[in-house]
Amino acid sequence: MGSCSLTAAARSLQNWIGPRRRPSGILLIEMPTALGRLKIVPALGKLTSLYPELRIAATFADKVTDPIAAGLDAVVRIGEPRDERLMVKRVGTVRYIVCASPAYLAVHGEPRGVDDLKNHDCVRRVSHYGPKFAPWRFRQPDKDEAFEHQVEGTLSVDSPEAMIDIGLSGAGLVQLHTYMAERHIKSGALLEVLAPFAADGPPISVLFPSSKNLAPKVRAFIDFVVQVLED
């Protein structure tokens, strides 16, 4: 879905809400850094242009915070929600893909299967929970079963932005969420490999405090995020 479709969908929502229930006031939101910066923030201007009385204050966090204690209206989260005090609206799903720069593949060749990764320099993600390095996640094409695979490499980072930069530099293979890689794949700066093994990951959800009457500004934000992630 392109930007025109996003705008059309938002205008349809605007007409449905009606003049008495137009989103207004300050909307306090929080989102993961990479997802927010790469997908949501670039489109926020469309939301505020539709609702001139709406003011958005966005913060970014990659660790779980207490949205109620922080006074937030809504938070975007990746993973299974665990706070029973909050309402949950699932808005998308993360997908894991493996990418590399054309320069890297020209020198090292393209892996044809997961076992080929032992012959490649794979950039690992430093994990702050569980094992020191997070495993890569795949789906077995013939069985449609998910599995994990530990990779080896000379570089390890804990930042999604750094992972993207390393992939673009040609220093190794990287496993990214689709929203991190899509712009670079479209430009040709990154190429996807092992596509048959790409796996779905955790859900993306918008969480908000329970309320009998959902505020128009929160409803508008939820529908907006759905449209952005479908784009």
Structure description:
- With 231 residues, the chain is an alpha/beta fold.
- It folds into 2 domains: 3-93 and 202-230, D-Maltodextrin-Binding Protein, domain 2 (3-Layer(aba) Sandwich), CATH 3.40.190; 94-201, Periplasmic binding protein-like II (D-Maltodextrin-Binding Protein, domain 2), CATH 3.40.190.10.
- The chain has 7 helices and 12 strands.
- It has helices spanning 3-17, 33-40, 44-50, 102-108, 160-169, 178-187, 216-230, and strands at residues 25-31, 54-60, 74-78, 86-100, 124-126, 133-134, 136-140, 145-149, 156-157, 174-177, 191-193, 199-209.
- Strands 1, 2, 3, 4, 10, 11 and 12 form a 7-stranded mixed β-sheet that branches. A 3-stranded mixed β-sheet has the order 6-5-9, covered by helices on one side. The protein has a two-stranded antiparallel sheet with strand order 7-8.
- Helix 1 (3-17) packs antiparallel against helix 7.
- It is elongated, with a radius of gyration of 20 Å.
- Mean pLDDT is 90; it is low at 13-19.
